[in-house]
Amino acid sequence: MIMGKKQIKIQIKDLGFYYKNQQIFENICIEFENNSITTISGPSGQGKSSFLMALNRLWESIEGAKVKGTIRMDFGKGFENIYHKNYSVTKLRQRVGMVFQVPNPLPMSIYKNIEFPLKLRGEKNKTIIAEKVEQTLIESFLWEEVKDRLFTDAGLLSGGQQQRLCIARALVLEPQVLLLDEPTSSLDEKSVQVIEDLLLKLKKKCTIILVSHHIDQVDRIADNKLVLSDRRLVQH
After folding, report:
1. How many domains is the chain partitioned into structurally?
2. For FRET with 84, which of 21, 112, 143, 144 sits at 20 to 30 Å CA-CA?
3. Which of 44, 186, 175, 38 is CA-nearest to residue 103?
4. Cα separation of 185 and 182, whole Å?
5. Distance CA 143, CA 130 (A)
6. Domain that holds residue 12
7. If you write DSSP's letter for every residue of 192-226 in order, what string do you get?
8. What is the rounded distance in angstroms from the CA atom of residue 213 to the CA atom of residue 229?
9. Crossing angle for the helix pair 126-139 and 189-202, to the nearest 10 degrees
10. Structural domain contains residue 3
11. What is the pLDDT at residue 17?
Protein backbone atom coordinates (compact mmCIF):
# COMPACT_ATOMS: atom_id res chain seq x y z
CA MET A 1 0.00 0.00 0.00
CA ILE A 2 1.58 3.29 -1.09
CA MET A 3 0.45 6.59 0.37
CA GLY A 4 0.54 9.20 -2.37
CA LYS A 5 3.70 10.24 -4.22
CA LYS A 6 5.62 12.02 -1.48
CA GLN A 7 9.05 10.98 -0.27
CA ILE A 8 8.91 7.60 1.45
CA LYS A 9 10.66 7.16 4.79
CA ILE A 10 9.73 3.58 5.74
CA GLN A 11 9.02 0.53 3.59
CA ILE A 12 7.49 -2.55 5.19
CA LYS A 13 7.01 -5.85 3.40
CA ASP A 14 5.30 -9.04 4.64
CA LEU A 15 5.69 -8.06 8.29
CA GLY A 16 4.40 -10.51 10.85
CA PHE A 17 4.68 -10.52 14.63
CA TYR A 18 4.42 -13.61 16.81
CA TYR A 19 4.32 -14.10 20.55
CA LYS A 20 5.11 -17.66 21.56
CA ASN A 21 2.64 -19.68 19.45
CA GLN A 22 0.24 -16.79 18.78
CA GLN A 23 0.29 -14.77 15.58
CA ILE A 24 -0.47 -11.12 16.41
CA PHE A 25 -0.50 -9.74 12.86
CA GLU A 26 0.66 -10.92 9.46
CA ASN A 27 1.60 -9.94 5.90
CA ILE A 28 1.67 -6.19 6.52
CA CYS A 29 2.94 -4.33 3.45
CA ILE A 30 2.91 -0.55 3.71
CA GLU A 31 4.96 2.60 3.20
CA PHE A 32 5.14 5.68 5.43
CA GLU A 33 5.70 9.18 4.09
CA ASN A 34 8.47 11.40 5.35
CA ASN A 35 7.49 14.43 7.48
CA SER A 36 3.97 13.22 8.17
CA ILE A 37 1.81 12.03 11.05
CA THR A 38 0.33 8.58 10.54
CA THR A 39 -2.14 7.36 13.16
CA ILE A 40 -2.91 3.74 13.93
CA SER A 41 -6.18 2.93 15.67
CA GLY A 42 -8.32 -0.16 16.11
CA PRO A 43 -9.59 -2.55 18.81
CA SER A 44 -7.45 -3.31 21.86
CA GLY A 45 -5.23 -6.35 21.76
CA GLN A 46 -4.65 -6.30 18.00
CA GLY A 47 -0.92 -5.60 18.15
CA LYS A 48 -0.61 -1.84 17.72
CA SER A 49 2.10 -1.56 20.37
CA SER A 50 3.85 -4.61 18.93
CA PHE A 51 3.86 -2.95 15.51
CA LEU A 52 5.61 0.11 16.95
CA MET A 53 8.16 -2.08 18.72
CA ALA A 54 8.91 -3.84 15.44
CA LEU A 55 10.01 -0.47 14.03
CA ASN A 56 12.84 -0.05 16.55
CA ARG A 57 13.34 -3.72 17.47
CA LEU A 58 12.32 -3.09 21.07
CA TRP A 59 10.45 -6.42 21.02
CA GLU A 60 13.78 -8.25 21.05
CA SER A 61 13.87 -7.98 24.84
CA ILE A 62 10.55 -9.86 25.11
CA GLU A 63 10.99 -13.60 25.62
CA GLY A 64 9.02 -15.64 23.10
CA ALA A 65 8.51 -12.78 20.62
CA LYS A 66 9.45 -13.11 16.96
CA VAL A 67 9.22 -10.96 13.84
CA LYS A 68 9.18 -12.00 10.18
CA GLY A 69 9.37 -9.81 7.11
CA THR A 70 11.39 -6.76 6.07
CA ILE A 71 11.54 -3.17 7.31
CA ARG A 72 13.66 -0.68 5.39
CA MET A 73 14.20 2.95 6.36
CA ASP A 74 15.83 5.82 4.52
CA PHE A 75 17.97 7.86 6.91
CA GLY A 76 19.44 10.02 4.15
CA LYS A 77 21.72 7.59 2.32
CA GLY A 78 19.20 5.27 0.75
CA PHE A 79 17.08 2.52 2.26
CA GLU A 80 18.66 0.30 4.92
CA ASN A 81 17.32 -3.02 6.17
CA ILE A 82 17.01 -2.53 9.93
CA TYR A 83 16.80 -6.30 10.42
CA HIS A 84 20.07 -7.04 8.66
CA LYS A 85 22.19 -9.20 10.96
CA ASN A 86 24.91 -6.53 11.11
CA TYR A 87 22.62 -3.54 11.64
CA SER A 88 23.32 -1.77 14.93
CA VAL A 89 20.31 -1.74 17.28
CA THR A 90 21.91 1.11 19.22
CA LYS A 91 22.19 3.20 16.05
CA LEU A 92 18.61 2.32 15.11
CA ARG A 93 17.18 3.49 18.43
CA GLN A 94 19.05 6.77 18.17
CA ARG A 95 17.31 7.32 14.83
CA VAL A 96 13.92 5.92 15.84
CA GLY A 97 12.72 7.34 19.17
CA MET A 98 9.77 6.02 21.16
CA VAL A 99 7.39 7.49 23.74
CA PHE A 100 5.08 5.24 25.76
CA GLN A 101 1.53 5.51 27.01
CA VAL A 102 2.51 6.06 30.65
CA PRO A 103 5.16 8.76 31.19
CA ASN A 104 8.37 7.15 32.42
CA PRO A 105 10.76 9.88 33.59
CA LEU A 106 13.98 8.50 35.01
CA PRO A 107 14.39 8.83 38.80
CA MET A 108 16.66 11.85 38.51
CA SER A 109 16.46 15.56 37.80
CA ILE A 110 14.74 17.13 34.80
CA TYR A 111 18.13 18.12 33.37
CA LYS A 112 19.66 14.68 33.82
CA ASN A 113 16.68 13.04 32.14
CA ILE A 114 17.51 14.90 28.93
CA GLU A 115 21.26 14.61 29.42
CA PHE A 116 21.14 10.83 29.89
CA PRO A 117 20.76 9.75 26.22
CA LEU A 118 23.51 12.16 25.19
CA LYS A 119 25.91 10.66 27.72
CA LEU A 120 25.00 7.16 26.60
CA ARG A 121 25.95 8.18 23.07
CA GLY A 122 29.30 9.37 24.38
CA GLU A 123 28.85 13.14 24.46
CA LYS A 124 31.17 14.67 27.09
CA ASN A 125 31.17 18.37 26.20
CA LYS A 126 29.13 20.05 28.94
CA THR A 127 28.46 23.14 26.83
CA ILE A 128 27.03 21.09 23.98
CA ILE A 129 24.94 19.05 26.44
CA ALA A 130 23.55 22.22 28.08
CA GLU A 131 22.67 23.70 24.69
CA LYS A 132 20.91 20.53 23.55
CA VAL A 133 18.98 20.21 26.82
CA GLU A 134 17.69 23.78 26.54
CA GLN A 135 16.93 23.48 22.82
CA THR A 136 15.01 20.23 23.29
CA LEU A 137 12.98 21.53 26.21
CA ILE A 138 12.07 24.60 24.14
CA GLU A 139 11.03 22.35 21.24
CA SER A 140 8.88 20.32 23.63
CA PHE A 141 7.03 23.41 24.95
CA LEU A 142 8.45 22.75 28.41
CA TRP A 143 11.34 25.19 28.87
CA GLU A 144 9.38 28.12 30.26
CA GLU A 145 7.75 25.85 32.83
CA VAL A 146 10.93 24.21 34.13
CA LYS A 147 13.87 26.53 33.39
CA ASP A 148 14.07 27.62 37.04
CA ARG A 149 13.99 24.08 38.44
CA LEU A 150 16.05 22.00 36.03
CA PHE A 151 17.81 20.18 38.84
CA THR A 152 14.69 19.16 40.77
CA ASP A 153 13.21 15.65 40.67
CA ALA A 154 11.44 14.99 37.35
CA GLY A 155 8.89 12.93 39.26
CA LEU A 156 7.46 16.15 40.72
CA LEU A 157 6.23 17.30 37.32
CA SER A 158 2.56 16.99 36.39
CA GLY A 159 1.47 14.13 34.13
CA GLY A 160 1.38 16.33 31.05
CA GLN A 161 4.78 17.81 31.85
CA GLN A 162 6.25 14.35 32.43
CA GLN A 163 5.01 13.21 29.02
CA ARG A 164 6.53 16.26 27.34
CA LEU A 165 9.76 15.52 29.21
CA CYS A 166 9.72 11.98 27.80
CA ILE A 167 9.16 13.39 24.31
CA ALA A 168 12.07 15.79 24.89
CA ARG A 169 14.26 12.89 26.02
CA ALA A 170 13.40 11.04 22.81
CA LEU A 171 14.06 14.15 20.69
CA VAL A 172 17.45 15.09 22.14
CA LEU A 173 19.21 12.57 19.86
CA GLU A 174 17.43 14.15 16.88
CA PRO A 175 15.61 11.00 15.68
CA GLN A 176 14.27 10.89 12.15
CA VAL A 177 11.30 8.74 13.18
CA LEU A 178 9.23 9.22 16.35
CA LEU A 179 6.92 6.45 17.59
CA LEU A 180 4.23 7.29 20.16
CA ASP A 181 2.04 4.70 21.88
CA GLU A 182 -1.12 6.49 23.09
CA PRO A 183 0.91 9.32 24.64
CA THR A 184 -2.15 11.39 25.67
CA SER A 185 -4.49 8.68 26.93
CA SER A 186 -4.12 9.60 30.61
CA LEU A 187 -3.81 13.38 30.26
CA ASP A 188 -6.24 16.23 30.76
CA GLU A 189 -7.67 18.16 27.83
CA LYS A 190 -5.22 21.05 28.10
CA SER A 191 -2.20 18.74 28.15
CA VAL A 192 -3.59 16.81 25.19
CA GLN A 193 -3.85 20.02 23.17
CA VAL A 194 -0.28 21.04 24.01
CA ILE A 195 1.09 17.66 22.90
CA GLU A 196 -0.98 17.66 19.70
CA ASP A 197 0.38 21.12 18.87
CA LEU A 198 3.87 19.80 19.59
CA LEU A 199 3.43 16.84 17.23
CA LEU A 200 2.15 19.06 14.43
CA LYS A 201 5.29 21.16 14.83
CA LEU A 202 7.62 18.14 15.03
CA LYS A 203 6.47 16.56 11.78
CA LYS A 204 8.45 19.24 9.94
CA LYS A 205 11.62 17.48 11.06
CA CYS A 206 10.65 13.84 11.54
CA THR A 207 8.21 11.12 10.58
CA ILE A 208 5.64 10.43 13.30
CA ILE A 209 3.66 7.23 13.85
CA LEU A 210 1.06 7.58 16.58
CA VAL A 211 -1.15 4.90 18.13
CA SER A 212 -4.39 6.53 19.30
CA HIS A 213 -7.84 5.32 20.32
CA HIS A 214 -9.25 8.83 20.17
CA ILE A 215 -10.98 9.34 16.82
CA ASP A 216 -11.28 13.10 17.38
CA GLN A 217 -7.51 13.28 17.90
CA VAL A 218 -6.93 11.26 14.73
CA ASP A 219 -9.14 13.65 12.79
CA ARG A 220 -7.31 16.68 14.17
CA ILE A 221 -3.70 15.76 13.44
CA ALA A 222 -3.40 12.77 11.10
CA ASP A 223 -2.10 13.05 7.56
CA ASN A 224 -2.68 9.32 7.08
CA LYS A 225 -5.08 7.13 9.06
CA LEU A 226 -4.60 3.38 9.49
CA VAL A 227 -6.56 0.74 11.37
CA LEU A 228 -5.05 -2.48 12.74
CA SER A 229 -7.74 -5.14 13.02
CA ASP A 230 -8.01 -8.88 12.35
CA ARG A 231 -4.21 -9.06 11.91
CA ARG A 232 -4.25 -6.55 9.05
CA LEU A 233 -3.17 -2.92 8.82
CA VAL A 234 -5.47 -1.08 6.41
CA GLN A 235 -6.20 2.46 5.32
CA HIS A 236 -8.99 4.04 7.35
Report:
1. 1
2. 21
3. 186
4. 6
5. 13
6. 8-235
7. HHHHHHHHHHHTTTSEEEEE---HHHHHHH-SEEE
8. 13
9. 120
10. no
11. 96
